[in-house]
Design a protein that fits this description.
This protein is 23% helix and 36% strand. It has 155 residues and is α+β, with helices and mostly antiparallel strands. The protein is globular, with a radius of gyration of 17 Å.
Length: 155
């Protein structure tokens, strides 16, 4: 086996492990009999009933109009010093009307250096995309923006 092919296979195995581990964690929050979890149930599962406050520290970047709901780019940036005492612990990307509201859950440490995450999500229609951020002190911050999903870019 050549070294390049060996490295590719190691990366593929690592990527599969990284994707399946969070999926197993999300599955335990889903109600029995299906994978659907509503927005309110997802927020409750993440926060444990704690208060969530809207914050200017959380910057959510999504397009106002998405031509294709299958691949909507999402960027979340959190202003944080990322020190041991004050850092972003987790970033959760949620949607308000999808069958399964939880799109992504990312755990961070001070070693990440930045409270930043970017991904693409699937939207089943026009709805809000929400970034829910857990800080190291146990508080939760939120930012939300509406995304209008069109067919072929026609509003």
């Amino acid at each position: 086996m050549k070294r390049r092919n060996f490295l590719k296979s190691i990366c593929a195995v690592t990527a599969v492990a990284a994707v399946t581990s969070p999926s197993a964690l999300l599955a335990k929050d889903a109600p029995k009999g299906g994978n659907a979890i509503t927005y309110d149930a997802a927020v409750s599962a993440i926060t444990g009933g704690k208060a969530v406050s809207d914050s200017d520290k959380v910057s959510l970047t999504v397009p106002e109009i998405a031509e294709n709901g299958a691949v909507v780019p999402v960027k979340v940036n959190v202003e944080s010093p990322m020190t041991e005492a004050d850092h972003v612990k987790a970033i959760h990307v949620l949607t308000t009307k999808n069958g399964n509201a939880r799109c992504a859950d990312v755990m961070l440490t001070p070693m990440n250096g930045k409270g930043y995450f970017a991904t693409r999500v699937k939207l089943g229609g026009t709805q809000d995309v929400v970034a829910l951020v857990e800080m190291s002190d146990g508080s939760f911050l939120r930012a939300a923006k509406p995304v209008k999903v069109t067919i072929g870019g026609c509003g």
